[in-house]
Amino acid sequence: MSLSAEITLPRLNKKITLPTGLFINNEFVPSVDSKELIHAINPATEELICSVVAASVKDIDVAVAAARQAFKTTWGKNVTGFERSRLINKLADLIERDAEELAELESLNNGKPKRIARDFDIGDSVQCLRYYAGWADKIIGQTLEVDNKAKLAFTRHDPIGVCGQIIPWNYPINMWAWKVAPALAVGCTIVMKPSELTPLTALKLSELVKEAGFPPGVVNTVPSYGPVGGAALAAHLDVDKVAFTGSTITGRKIMEAAAKSNLKKVSLELGGKSPHLVFESADLDQAANWAALGICYNSGQDCTAGSRVYVQDTIYDRFLELLVAKVKAQVIGDGLDERTGGGPVVSKGQYDRVWGYIEAGKKEGAQAILGGVKRTTKGYYVDPTIFVNIKPDMTIVKEEIFGPVLSVGLFKTEEEAITLANETSYGLGAGLHSNDANQCMRVSSALEAGTVWVNQYNILNNNVPFGGKKQSGIGRELGSYALEEYTSVKAVHWNFGEKLTWPL
């Protein structure tokens, strides 16, 4: 097959050439042994955009070998932090230059509104790269007193090596930046496996990696099906670390494969069933805005989606009225329309999954007061759905849906709210709204989540760590904490005065 495709970008009224091969050693190449393809579908039209090469296990081996060679020769400890910083900043500049094209391509392949992809996902990704470019020349260790007359010790924070990075389909560009930026900053090399549902922008970004001037093999991109490429990276004996964002079920498989192979370092950002508490002292209009954002943003396809909202009984009716009005105001439609706030879910499989949960909610006795009715037009659209009269053991309350489906319950006391919030196997995010400062401190401390938002929701910053507790994963992304995921600490003991007598 050809290793490129011509893609029409309707909003920009232009055609672009998209590479469709595997990106290894700064070149787009065919598979060494397979003719299998990945078909990229537009979820708004259900039509094929193009097909790209699907990497085989042997292709993963080639990509890992390229990354290892680069780590040993042109990257790793062989290039200064100043140079790493320069190249990462150059990459950020190029992404910013091509933001319109990347955003429209993201919208076509993922379904999210172009405006959201451009102004939020890409804007944040550029900032993320620049944040870690600032860290690249500031990777430092410690000098430790041992014996001032004879010895000292110091530590080095070395790049861990070759990193397999497996990213999801809900934020294809953003998750790429979250993974790539800290790894490059410390000197690691990368084999990137984008989701088989959304491979297109990762391939376009690979062109920019080469244009920025990164040496061959530093970043390699291998679109592949999860059970093939993802499994091969997790089990590979020459991969030093694997970073994964996705489902808890797949996270377990990756951790098991890492343990059974070479005990590679693992970081996992997994699922969530995040609670959102609204207390009677809250600014109800603002709380309703944030609760609507928590379930509508990215069409609910968010690991931190605030999919369980619990409201104090004294304000329940008033808040519910506000919330329904806010969610109704969200425009779900064509992602290329600047007025659109949400698009379709990413695929037919995800569409069927979300509707399965909606039907389960109805069957188990929850009441849908908004949504819950299928559209008759083309596209994998799911209108925001709000359930009330929920019970803790309902499927929609317990399981991650990954769509715009919200369960709303009530509580009487602060203690009951905390209990309801923590009654989950997940622990990624949580939110609370209150104008009682003491309550904010008590409840934020008691919530079992890696991130707690107070009087806001779902807002992340590149200098603030992000990650989960319980079955929502291990390790942290963003902030200085992410650097620890890509470094290994070496202690050097230096004897300059002690003489050893022998035998003992």
Automatic annotation (TrEMBL):
<dbReference type="InterPro" id="IPR016161">
    <property type="entry name" value="Ald_DH/histidinol_DH"/>
</dbReference>
<dbReference type="InterPro" id="IPR029510">
    <property type="entry name" value="Ald_DH_CS_GLU"/>
</dbReference>
<protein>
    <recommendedName>
        <fullName>Aldehyde dehydrogenase domain-containing protein</fullName>
    </recommendedName>
</protein>
<dbReference type="InterPro" id="IPR015590">
    <property type="entry name" value="Aldehyde_DH_dom"/>
</dbReference>
<dbReference type="InterPro" id="IPR016163">
    <property type="entry name" value="Ald_DH_C"/>
</dbReference>
<dbReference type="Pfam" id="PF00171">
    <property type="entry name" value="Aldedh"/>
</dbReference>
<feature type="active site">
    <location>
        <position position="269"/>
    </location>
</feature>
<comment type="similarity">
    <text>Belongs to the aldehyde dehydrogenase family.</text>
</comment>
<feature type="domain" description="Aldehyde dehydrogenase">
    <location>
        <begin position="33"/>
        <end position="492"/>
    </location>
</feature>
<dbReference type="GO" id="GO:0004030">
    <property type="term" value="F:aldehyde dehydrogenase [NAD(P)+] activity"/>
</dbReference>
<keyword id="KW-0560">Oxidoreductase</keyword>
<dbReference type="InterPro" id="IPR016162">
    <property type="entry name" value="Ald_DH_N"/>
</dbReference>
